[in-house]
Amino acid sequence: TSGERTAKAERMFELMDGFLKNDPLSLQKDILDHVEYTVARSRFSFDDFEAYQALSHCIRDRLIERWHDTQLHFKRKDPKRVYFLSLEYLMGRSLSNSIINLGIRDQCADALSQLGFEFEVLAEQEGDAALGNGGLARLSACQMDSLATMDFPAWGYGLRYQYGLFRQVILDGFQHEQPDYWLNFGNPWEIERVHVTYPVKFYGTVEEEILNGEKHQVWIPGEMVEAVAYDNPIPGYGTRNTITLRLWAAKPSNQHDMEAYNTGDYIDAVVNRQRAETISSILYPDDRSHQGKELRLKQQYFFVSASLQDIIRRFKDVHKDLNQFPDKVALQLNDTHPALAIPEVMRVLVDEEHLGWNKAFDIICKIFSFTTHTVLAEALEKIPVDLLESLLPRHLQIIYDINSFFMEELKKRIGLDYNRLSRMSIVEEGAVKSIRMANLSIFCSHTVNGVSKLHSELLQTRVFKDFYELWPEKFQYKTNGVTQRRWIVVSNPNLCALISKWLGTESWIRDIDLLMGLREYATDISLHQEWRMVRRVNKMRLAEYIEATSGLKVSLDAMFDVQMKRIHEYKRQLLNILGIIHRYDCIKNMAKDDRRKVVPRVCIIGGKAAPGYEMAKKIIKLCHAVAEKINNDSDVGDLLKLVFIPDYNVSVAELVIPGADLSQHISTAGHEASGTGSMKFLMNGCLLLATADGSTVEIIEEIGEDNMFLFGAKVHDVPTLREKGSTIKVPLQFARVVRMVRDGYFGFQDYFESLCNTVEGNNDYYLLGADFESYLEAQAAADKGFIDQEKWTRMSILSTAGSSRFSSDRTIQDYAEKTWGIEPCRCPL
Ligand code: NBY
């Protein structure tokens, strides 16, 4: 009765202390409680790791409060929501980020220091959450931060891989992969939802059923696993809003193999059930593609099915009429990896909700938007029909139905142009009949986004030309961005304080356009001094890290020149290494007196190669072989050092980026869809040495060519240069450095042969030879610039000041307005 209910509510309020308090004393008390009751150590004796655990739980409690309030607020307001579907997220560490977004950094540091701990030391205890490969996955993480900060009603969905991206270990200069046991020491940043589970089904057959006199297709699945939700709260900055990243783990279901129990042996049946967990056990470490793997397809469907059951349940909690689904739900496909969501929603609407096919398809076209992250037609995902037919027979039927409808529509528009029809078809005929996931995604989405202006032009004129000509209105682009909360506030606290001091406000942390205000002080001598001081301290931190990990001592007066990203032929780490060999060769051949004029450099390279990518692995080995030679040459000394930083990940990036003077983004024009590393370096006042590729084109628009070192062929030159092939005039220096590698100057002659072959004559697909001269000129310009410290500092300030357009806040604002049609929903304080 209502009387009882009020009494109960009153009692609850009496018992509640109010919200957790954030003064240092309350924090201390909570930390010690967690030491005792969560970590189960004595409060009189616990180490740094245990202190990290206790502090994390204390922060987790605070996140949970805000998160409950946010979810309740969203439920009450019932706004249109966006669901971000991605198979990859590179979250990195959470402690510092959470504390800063909660606005309690100083209080925590105080509380800890009185207990005899140092905040920075505890933060270092945390391992990275590396549930992704590279740019695409870190972009998802940055966008979650912006969605939360800007109060959007958003949910992220993903997979909770037991093993994230492999650890890179270097032995004798070769990359070895080791498993990433990131969950072994517990994960305080997730909340296991044992009651939020859904069955996910696979295999089986499709049968026809008559229902109310009408024929229906029904899927009779053969296997079932359970998806369990793990919620990761994502706190916004300067707001109470805390949104959810929900990751699914696979667990055996009570009815896994629907027959085994009747027929088989008990032990086998149980062991078999355990295999269900393999679905979410491991992240595929290839950032190009892995086509035709059954486990990968299972992962994709497992993810899609669980997420959609959850999304539809949440909708149906409040609404009865599925026709309203598009008014309340936007589904964002992060590349084609989650594109099975399209046939899955169709299946639910048609087979389970019994909507008419046309009505269902109409809904589909209103809810999906698709972002692609690649430039290359070859990299587009294809699923072999055989595989799909055995794993998801009903989905294959639905895709065929969609394709028939698509082909009919197309014929109305373009007639019987069979070449074009077959290029555009969702089904690819050929040796291996397969489904083109991009074609499916484009046809069924209301909007197709590229990730930079140049990328979008290439999509429209090359990759998806056929589609663009018919549906130009579908095509948009949202230039990528990165979050200044992680990439300045968390990772570069000194620069953060300096910016706030000069702008007279911290508001730029939420309102990035204010950063442009720094332009006004670009020539101010006292800012210059403070700016250089901050940069020097960051370089010191980086130098200590280099010494600790590689034993190499580097000079702080040298230019720190960094290239850190996944290793790929198109990203041209090899061009960088050949340039370093050239620099070395010049120093060796110089008169002793001339060496004094050389600008000292510390060249830093880092990044992982996909385990099966042979050339990328050879590039890593070459880097080590060259480093071995240079670093031990007494003629060279501090003039040139080469360091490979192993196991590049988000935390390493947080340390390296603030300490870099120069960073390289040197892909062959037309190959990097956007690039986001460059934006992080830019924000931190590092100068760029780059080709006019991906988002760099827009960076040039923003800061001007004069404030960076631009080189190389332009997109439109590339096809002509490729046609010219071996008739291009390649500079002598290029032939010389390749020859040095070929002739075994750095050892491992046989091993490097095939690598050398890739850049000679007609084989030089990525145009290293053609771009070499212009690359060396840009490097010389950088040397010259570095000597003029005043000019360099001005360029550095203007880089930071010009980075505001590359905040993920701007990207998300654009998506919200132009693609998803959602509005902020701010939880009251
Ligand atoms: O996405 C990257 C692009 O190369 C980069 O230019 C862009 O800035 C970034 C964000 O838009 N792409 C990328 O990181 N791709 C992958 O990591 C990836 C992962 C898995 C698969 C393919 C690509 N796969 O086939 O599963």
From TrEMBL:
EC number(s) from the headed UniProt entry: 2.4.1.1
Keywords: Carbohydrate metabolism, Glycosyltransferase, Pyridoxal phosphate, Transferase
Similarity comment text for this entry: Belongs to the glycogen phosphorylase family.
Reactions the enzyme catalyzes: [(1->4)-alpha-D-glucosyl](n) + phosphate = [(1->4)-alpha-D-glucosyl](n-1) + alpha-D-glucose 1-phosphate
Required cofactor(s): pyridoxal 5'-phosphate
Organism: Citrullus colocynthis (colocynth)
Its job: Allosteric enzyme that catalyzes the rate-limiting step in glycogen catabolism, the phosphorolytic cleavage of glycogen to produce glucose-1-phosphate, and plays a central role in maintaining cellular and organismal glucose homeostasis.
Section of the entire sequence shown: 169 to 997 of 997
Protein name as annotated: Alpha-1,4 glucan phosphorylase
Entry superkingdom: Eukaryota
